[in-house]
Design a protein that fits this description.
Blueprint: H1 3-14, H2 21-31, H3 34-39, H4 42-45, H5 53-63, H6 68-78, E1 82-83, H7 92-95, E2 104-108, H8 112-116, E3 121-125, H9 132-147, E4 151-154, H10 160-170, E5 175-178, H11 192-201, E6 202-206, H12 218-229, E7 232-235, H13 243-253, E8 257-260, H14 271-278, E9 282-283, H15 288-294, H16 318-326, E10 332-333, H17 334-341, H18 345-357, E11 361-364, E12 368-371
Parallel strand pairs: 3-4, 3-7, 4-5, 5-6, 7-8, 8-9
Antiparallel strand pairs: 1-2, 2-6, 10-12, 11-12
Helix pairs in contact: 1-6, 9-10, 10-11, 12-13, 16-18
């Protein structure tokens, strides 16, 4: 099936109330593709985990009023630029999370190396009301990341987000703004100049269509996209009830590394960061070269590039092949691997151990695994 054929069904399914990203994943996994799911009868649809009677009723009613072909044509008039998981350009790291956005709208200058995972992305989040301390370190770290080839991901909100985007671009780097509105809506409006600059030095992305206005429920949801896109998340300053902590929770669930900027124990803007550090988040300190090495970058110094030999992958039994096909160079949690493979936990554990003994897989702290 062509990408164009399948993407119209991603769009059509996303218009049905009660069908969110997780149910869409289940539909695709159950039927193999969303066109087959669309054409399935109620009896077949009832076999999909999580589809209750009320949701099934909505599907039957709403499907009869939708024509996927016409819907795609109409939708593209207002939203010419968007990806679905059926498109090869869809960000690879987002495919790996349990709730990838069925539609991802974008504006700006696309870099396909970011989408494929070849170019590393690091998220930076924090409070909308940072102190001078938080602003100083956000600027320094964003600048260092940009100069070392990282793309900075944030949410274009006031405060830490704004500082991280601006500093990365000032250093000549790229940045990605994940917004909770349509990609054509500037929020907050005071960031209109920043928005225009991002369109020339990166992209603005959203799971919401054009002209979607700000809505308080959208912003916590968009935080999973920031976490999903980023190989690691840096939390600069965050009070206990900060949205940045929601992003950090998503990052932990997705098997991403989380780092936090420490502050004084009586500083309100640092309480969330101190909580993250007490729960095992990495510590951001003044040795930024150490942080860059931890994030996989080599600071810009003159050294010989080592020659790395890849491990050849032999012919594997089906269950081992299924597990290793799920893994990537980024660490994934044990639970996530079970979910992606659909295999029994004991079989996944046994397969991972065998792959580790063969030198094909590495286990990291926290029951996370990655390809060698």
């Amino acid at each position: 099936m062509s990408n164009t054929e399948e993407r119209k069904y991603w769009l059509a399914w996303s218009q049905i109330s009660g069908i969110g990203p997780i149910l869409l994943q289940r539909l695709q996994q159950h039927f193999g593709n969303l066109e087959t799911a669309w054409k399935a009868g109620p009896g077949e649809l009832r076999k999909v985990e999580g589809l209750g009677f009320q949701t099934l009723e909505k599907i039957v009613q709403q499907k009869s009023r939708l024509n996927p072909e016409q819907l795609l044509t109409q939708h593209q008039q207002a939203n010419p630029l968007f990806w679905t998981p059926a498109d090869p350009e869809y960000p690879q790291l987002l495919r790996e999370i349990p709730s990838p956005p069925p539609l991802l709208y974008y504006r700006g200058e696309v870099d396909l190396q970011e989408n494929s995972g070849e170019k590393p992305l690091v998220g930076i989040v924090g409070t909308r009301q940072p102190t001078e301390y938080g602003i100083k370190w956000t600027r320094q770290i964003s600048t260092a990341l940009a100069k070392n080839g990282f793309t900075v991901v944030s949410g274009m909100a006031e405060g830490i987000d704004t500082e991280s985007h601006a500093a990365a671009m000032k250093a000549g780097g790229r940045t990605i703004a994940v917004v909770g509105t349509g990609v054509d809506v500037i929020y907050p409006h005071k960031n209109r100049d920043l928005y225009k600059q991002i369109l020339t030095s990166g992209i603005v992305i959203s799971e919401y269509p054009a002209r979607t206005a700000p809505n308080r429920t959208h912003f916590p949801r968009r935080n999973r996209i920031i976490a999903g896109l980023s190989r690691a998340l840096l939390v600069m300053e965050a009070p206990i009830k900060s949205g940045a902590l929601i992003t950090a929770t998503y990052s932990n669930e997705f098997g991403r590394d989380v780092y936090a900027l420490p502050g004084r124990i009586d500083d309100q803007p640092s309480q969330g960061c101190l909580k993250l550090i007490s729960q095992g988040a990495g510590l951001i300190n003044q040795e930024l070269s150490e942080l860059l090495i931890m994030l996989g970058a080599i600071p810009q110094i003159d050294i010989e590039t080592p020659i790395v030999k890849s491990v050849p992958i032999p012919n594997l039994p089906p269950e081992l092949q299924q597990v290793i096909d799920t893994l990537s160079i980024d660490a994934l949690s044990f639970d996530f691997i079970i979910q992606k493979t659909g295999m029994d936990a004991g079989l996944v554990s046994s397969s991972l151990l065998q792959l580790e003994l063969m030198g094909l897989v590495t286990q990291l702290p926290g029951m996370r695994y990655q390809k060698c």
